[in-house]
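User: Continuing from earlier, I have the next pair ready.

Assistant: Great, send them over.

User: Here they are, in order.

Assistant: Folding the first of the pair now:
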Amino acid sequence: MKKTKLLVTLFIVMAFVSACTATAATEEVVNTAILTVGEKTYSKADLEALGTMSTDYTDKEGVTTTYEGVSLSALLDDAGLSGSAEIVLTASDGYEASLTMEEAVACANCIVAFDGDTLRTVMPDLSGKLNVKDLVAISGN
């Protein structure tokens, strides 16, 4: 009987410690910087705090996917880049695509989308080269 109580107590303590560790790890991932916009860095939680929206993108094969993310124009405004003439989107592998600020602000359904553990731009009404996967930075010129 004493062994059973000891094992049950040990199991409860281990479950509690595991739950606390998982929560801390989740909070750390959520608060890790994943995007730099101008001089400002954003975590996933920071981006979500700007408000999210959904947009549909139809690829060249005709397949439509719905993405969830942050309005590109709202993000640029929050980061203080709205006065730039041009913005440059940079992927983790160094790929870059640029567009004018006028194009970025005029595109109401352009977003920085959550794509698993990474980000991507979804620009349904603009050139496909602007759909940058694994987005890590947006800069203004």
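And the other member of the pair:
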Amino acid sequence: MANTVTTTSPAHPYSPAYAVAGFGFVSGALSVDVDGHAVEGVEPALDAAVARLTERLATIDMALTDVVKTTYFVTDVATRDAANKHYERIFDAPRPARSFVEVAALPYGATVEIEAIAHRP
């Protein structure tokens, strides 16, 4: 796979997704709807963050099945149990490695942000 960088913007000067040498690196995908509004509720927020992650992966011709590592940033560590159940639903075993980090706040009022590393040999 050649180097691939998705579009940046003045408000977001980084690459939402970048592919090189069979790896895909995805910047944090927030729990927002397609219009950029924060999604309320734990399960809907997790679903929204995964939807945004999936969209970003698609820009570099990758999918959730290619993900090998994720980092979840959440505004409430108490979402961990729900996130674990959600992880089991969206990823087949063996599931990607994952870090889970509580943060004070996320952009746009989001409650979940997921970044990922994907690989396709």
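Worth noting for the second one:
The two ends are 9 Å apart (CA to CA). DSSP finds two helices and six strands in the chain.
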